Amino acid sequence: MPRLALISPKGADFARDGSLSEFLQNEPRMRNIRNLWNSPNLGLLTIAALTPSHWDIEYIDEHLRAIDFDRQYDIVGISCMTQQIERGYEIARIFQQKGILTVIGGIHATVCPEEVAEVADVVVAGEAELLWPMFIQDWESGKFKRIYKEGNPGRLDMRISPFPRYDIIKDYNYSTITVHTSRGCPHDCSFCAASRVYGPVYRRKTNEQIISELILIKEHFENKYVLFGDDNIFVSREESKSLLREIKKLNIRWVAQTDISIADDMELVQLMADSGCQWVVIGLESVSRKSLEKVNKWKTKQHENYKESINKIQGKGIGVMGAFVFGLDYDDESVLEDTIQFIEECNFYGIHVTTPTPFPGARFRNMMIDEGRLLDLPWSYYTHWDVLIQPKHMSSEELHDCIVKIYKTFTAEENVNRRFQMFIQRQRNLIQS
């Protein structure tokens, strides 16, 4: 029986910088962000589902469990985001010294396959449903390639994607259990590499698939939050409404990532609330229209309606976690104060404020290289919170301090109490209506 280890390497929980990381980890009022990141590696669970049933599979999340390097495996599969890749290389080298074949996949391997191939025995650069079965078949025949790569990303029909092997993580105490209903996003933001990884076309599972997967999750994890980890889950409006009507019957609590345009369809928002939506992450990026123009033209058009839209969503009892990127080219001290004021006026359920991160594969990285503004830091600093570029209107240290100030202002006791009173009033309004 072949033995396969599937490993998610440990990376920084938040920033590698001590002060910001310590604040985000220890501040009680930032628990919602910590819970958002405490979820399984869905790519590895999908790999497990694509592996022949006679294989012995062990899932290891190094954030929660140490790797036993003395165990014997036929193959060690490692899935890495960019900030995990250096640890992934360390793990691969240790197992290679023991004569064990190593395979590295994930987002970083997809955008930097040649780099990863310098360490890993095999690289899976693309969607697992297409590439992993090809590798397994080749391995079993005794002859496999160094790099398995999609020729034209974004062609996979999501209807053939198997249910992830949720059963192999039953002894992990995750706060949320992740579900992906789609891949691809129609909004081509300059700092996002999703369109290169998954292609520009929005592809979606059927509602029947999604409901069956949610039922499976309920069987294994009663009372856990479900996180819809799609970049943008409600692109297909009518299918989404039908899905929400079915989710309502399941009695689950869930959170999702979406865009601000859901506020234009209050039937959708009401269905979200009725079906158990607790809160949503919405990428607003910046309160500065000039900054938005360089990030995404579609979001620039939405800018003037941000406050009204957030109020409409939260008015239905759904919290909004506003996601911002601070340190864009027009950001300075005045934009910092505008951002703090905007956050206070919107009474967000939570905030997620990060630095402009030049991920490999994103247009933003090429811009920073061309302008000579990319800082020479290891991949392990690509956490979203560490400063990796030279901002235009402040030093990198000042940018770091600005982000700390935004978080500390949001979590100040008087602001927390004010938001709590607003929440109570919203609940009263909902009951009365």
From TrEMBL:
Keywords on record: Iron, Iron-sulfur, Metal-binding, Methyltransferase, S-adenosyl-L-methionine, Transferase
Pfam families named in the record: B12-binding (PF02310), Radical_SAM (PF04055)
Radical SAM core domain ranges (all copies): 171-398
The keyword Iron-sulfur belongs to this UniProt entry's keyword annotation: yes
UniProt cross-references to InterPro entries, sorted A to Z: BchE-like, Cobalamin-bd, Elp3/MiaA/NifB-like_rSAM, Methyltransferase_Class_B, rSAM, rSAM_horseshoe, rSAM_sf
Domain B12-binding residues, every copy: 1-146
Cofactors named for this entry: [4Fe-4S] cluster
Keyword Glycoprotein attached: no
Protein name: Radical SAM protein
